[in-house]
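re: ur question from the group chat, yeah i did fold both. here u go
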Amino acid sequence: MVYSFYIYYRIDPAKAADCERRIRELFAAMHKATGVFGQLMKKRGESNLWMEIYLNVADDTKFEWELAEAADRLNITEFLLPGTPRHMECFEHP
């Protein structure tokens, strides 16, 4: 089975530049740990709504663990709008 992960969240607009650098660090850490490349998207017309996309994940359990560990270590939540979480969705490829 192969999976795709979509993580979306609202960032504090005042911290956007620093957040983008940190997300690039997260992508590098995830690629090193899992071999999966991440992509960053920002919603058209709502530039503080961001989405990380990770495609073709073979080991979903390892990936989720590595993502949680890296996001905690890099303190990604410090860039979110107060009171808002990161949402994760995982889809199976048929």
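okk and heres the other one u asked abt
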Amino acid sequence: MVEREGLTGVRKDGLKGATREMTELVWVGNETPFVDVISMESVGPITVGRFGGCSRSGQTKNEDGCVVWVGVDWEWTMLLDAHDTAESAVLLTGYLTSHRLEIERILNEPVESMFSSLERYVVSLLENKTFRTACQTVRGETACLFLVRKGKYVWWLSVGDVLAYLFHPDLSNHLQYKLNERQFFEWIGRVNTFDLPVPCYSRGIRELRQGINQLLLTTDGLIECPGAPFEDGKELERVLTTSYVGVKTLLTTIERLGVRDSTTILAWAVEIEENVTMPGNAK
């Protein structure tokens, strides 16, 4: 098993005057499938971990995909899990990246208006008739999760069963780990829930907590691994002490257990220094 390693730090909110260049990763598993291979890579503060599954368990291909862009004060992530073929993931990543300039312009709007503008724009792209017609030419469908962090807020739009987690002691004390729930029978591709008279998807916005927040997105190979070691969000939080080491531990564990399905993980930490919402009776 060959590994590619990198380093990942904590992203602090409020990098005033920063001149950091945006970094990016655009990948679909048909290009480099990582079957029997764990890949660890850093894109700005984001750890990208990929494992294509075990050939000894019957895996021969990888249909995951991701688009990661990092700006001065935001992170854009898009994680896909296709089936049948990777064609739907290739189509969707190409389509969204072709609109990168407009997306980046929106991401650089003030936080007060950015998320509502971004949601309207992403939904308009997915509802676009030309794109939906193009979806009819591919074989298979993909689940897709968009997640963006800016300031002390995180927004997501989810189609299907890709999962996002937010780990912080304030939340785990109440057994709250997930940002979204897996939704079955939602896809983008040949079968497309944006072709319905009422498109089906879920979305949300959450305020991060003061201190270190750990964000993690994953395709379902991690959750459906034999023995289900990471089905419980509490166990995921325990392992994810730091983004890089935690992701590496997750992937080496499921490789050892012989997972068949491919797994792609995006993880990073964001430190929030400003005040956040607290109950009125907090001392």
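fwiw on the second one: The chain has one domain: 3-272. Residues 22 and 71 are 5 Å apart (CA to CA). idk if thats what u expected
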